[in-house]
Predict the structure of Hexosyltransferase.
Amino acid sequence: MCINRFLQLIVGHRRGNCKFNHPITILILSILVLVLYFLYSFHWSQKKLFQYYILDEVSNTSSKYADFEFTINEIMRCSREAPFLVMLVTSHPSESNTRHAIRSTWGGVREVYYGKEQLVGVLTLFLLGIPASMSVQAAVETESRVHKDIVQQNFVDSYRNLTLKVLMGMRWVSRYCPRAKYVLKTDSDMFVNVDLLVTSVLQPGLPPRTKYFAGHYFEATHPHRNPSSKWYLSRQHYRLDFYPPYCSGTAYTFSSDLSAKILQASQNLPLLPLEDVYIGLCLNWLGVHPLSNSLFHIKHINYSPCRYKSLVSSHGVTPDKLLLYWKGVQGAGDLHCDSVSLWLKETFCSLWACKGSSM
Ligand SMILES: *[C@@H]1O[C@H](CO)[C@@H](O)[C@H](O)[C@H]1NC(C)=O
Ligand SMILES: *[C@@H]1O[C@H](CO)[C@@H](O)[C@H](O)[C@H]1NC(C)=O
């Protein structure tokens, strides 16, 4: 064996015949081993990095999801037959109009056809905290008796408590619906194309995935350090300068096995007020990498039946728009929506502002 000559070739230091030169060989080999060791440990620390995102003082005192009590629950909704998909919608107690619009559109979808006349079931639940007003709570209880689609726990309903709401949803799925295949978590100001989500993203024809998590993906984004920001996070709460990979909380989908695992991870990770970042931390703790899916949109997409037939989620949709868009998409039937005709119509319409276009 002539390792020496090989190494001499690499370092460009040739010395005629192949003499086994011990000191140089050993030196170079040890450098190689050291480099490999550093690469390996760097990779390891990257993987585990986000466990150490909080300062010690904070981690001792900051709260965990301590299994708040259910004040409204639906323990039987899943008992007969587990649905293929559970859609969890975070909603404020006072927005009964919004819930009504969702129920009469995408939240009212009970089954989706795929393949040749095969059906899968879908279940929609609204996640609520406790409102400040007693009369709103009374109205929520009445609404719950009528529709049986509200789940509520006894924490104050506020934007900074959204993480508690999402963990409540995880708790509900893991405890009362563990045999569902997939979960969608979304907000009440969203348009969701349930058909496309089921047929083209989740694909019931495939064997069910586990440790699967997908949505609009963010990588290496930075915490907002300006206290006036909606997404403000102080250095006391989060000391790193970037976030783990995560999917926007507007809409993400995951295999239902993750709901119990995320809850378990949350026992080890102090809560953050940013729900989607926090779920990203839990996934990092579990070693699950979220996937990017271009059908999930975090902005409002200008409405057209073709565009809305070919996206899974669009943001900032008011209840009255939601009803309009839904009607339009349902009415579009098998409207020709390939990308060339879409492009032609869009170009045409941008030039001549065609009103009432069925694009
Ligand atoms: C937090 O906990 C760690 C270990 O559990 C301990 O060393 C540290 O002193 C605690 N900090 C405070 C502020 O209590
Ligand atoms: C979140 O809920 C808890 C439990 O009800 C409450 O003590 C806390 O004040 C709430 N936090 C915010 C920011 O509303």
